Amino acid sequence: MAKSFPHSLVLILFTILSTLSQSILAVKYVAINDAKQFPGGARFEREIGIPYTLQIMKKINLFIYKMFQQKIEGEKRTIDTVHLYIQQFDGAEGITYGDHVNVSALYLQGYQGNLKWEFTSLLYHELTHVFQWISGPMGLVEGIADYTILKANYYPPGFAKPGQGDRWDQGYDITARFLEYCDSLKSGFVAALNRKMKDGYSDDYFVELLGKPVNQLWSEYKARYNHNAVLPFAFRQRFR
Ligand SMILES: [Zn+2]
Questions:
Q1: Dihedral of alpha carbons 163, 169, 173, 177, sign
Q2: How many CB atoms lie under 10 A from the CB of residue 34?
Q3: Ligand 1 centroid to residue 18 C-alpha, Å
Q4: On the chain, which terminus has fewer CB atoms closer than 10 Å, C or N?
Q5: Nearest by Cα to 227 from 188, 190, 181
Q6: Handedness of CA 203, 205, 208, 212 (dihedral sign)
Q7: For residue 240, how far is its CA from the centre of ligand 1 (angstroms)?
Q8: Which residues contact 8 (CB under 8 A, 6 or more apart)?
Q9: CA of 1 to the centre of ligand 1 (A)
Q10: Is beta strand 100-104 parallel, antiparallel or unpaired with respect to 94-97?
């Protein structure tokens, strides 16, 4: 004869589970290696694997929610399942469409170094595209994705140093460093900017959040780091 739980305990457990499922556990993760027959797909199996991928997808998802400080459901994009595929394609390390992330097996094949680390770094970038609000200049969207890499401490040696670049919306690591500066002026700036981007984009968001136009902030940022002198151009040719 089976023992039954006290009703009150069942009720408490049910409440906890339903609360959790409404917030974090609602997102599901699927990872599939469609390129096992290719060298990059085989290398993925040897050096990374599906179990690690599923584990890191969840970890990164939680990191991004925390970074964006999205406590209310309406502030988040509604994502039911994140799909990740290892596929044989050229021209980019990874491509994200909606809740689908495709990682290039050709890229994995050719990468020199710690592949697991690099793959994790790439996923911090690509998964940001899944969870961020996408509007405004693409350079800003890509900059926020690289800002996640920066905050997660998963940025590669060639990542831009503070003060580098020509334009605030140049994209990737250049814009990520500028966003880091803006966030240093007002903690939570990037999270607040992302929340505003839910309803479209305006340069005025910088004035609303930091009290200054974005071009003035960029000039002050450049002046602070005094990087108008000749510097090696550190922008990596990474396309994702
Ligand atoms: Zn990207």
A1: positive
A2: 13
A3: 33
A4: N
A5: 181
A6: negative
A7: 4
A8: none
A9: 57
A10: antiparallel
Of 3.30.428.10, 1.10.390.10, 1.10.1740.110, 2.60.40.10, which CATH number belongs to 26-131? 1.10.390.10
Domain spans in the chain, listed from the N-terminal domain onward? 26-131, 136-240
Q: Could you report how far apart the first and last alpha carbons of the chain are, in Å?
A: 58
4 alpha carbon – ligand 1 mean position (Å): 51
**DSSP assignment, residue 76?**
S
Rg, C-alpha atoms of the chain: 20
Chain position carrying tokens 């990374």: 48
Tokens of 215: 């071009």
Task: Report which residue type is found at 154.
Answer: Y
pLDDT in tens, 43-100: 999 999 999 999 999 999 999 999 999 877 778 888 999 999 999 999 999 999 999 9
Beta strands in the chain (DSSP E): 28-33, 81-87, 94-97, 100-104
The pair of structure tokens assigned to 28 is: 């599901």
CB atoms within 5 A of ion ligand 1 belong to: 142, 145, 240
pTM attached to this predicted model: 0.84
Other beta carbons within 10 Å of 158: 11
Q: What are phi and psi of 94, to 5 degrees?
A: -155, 150
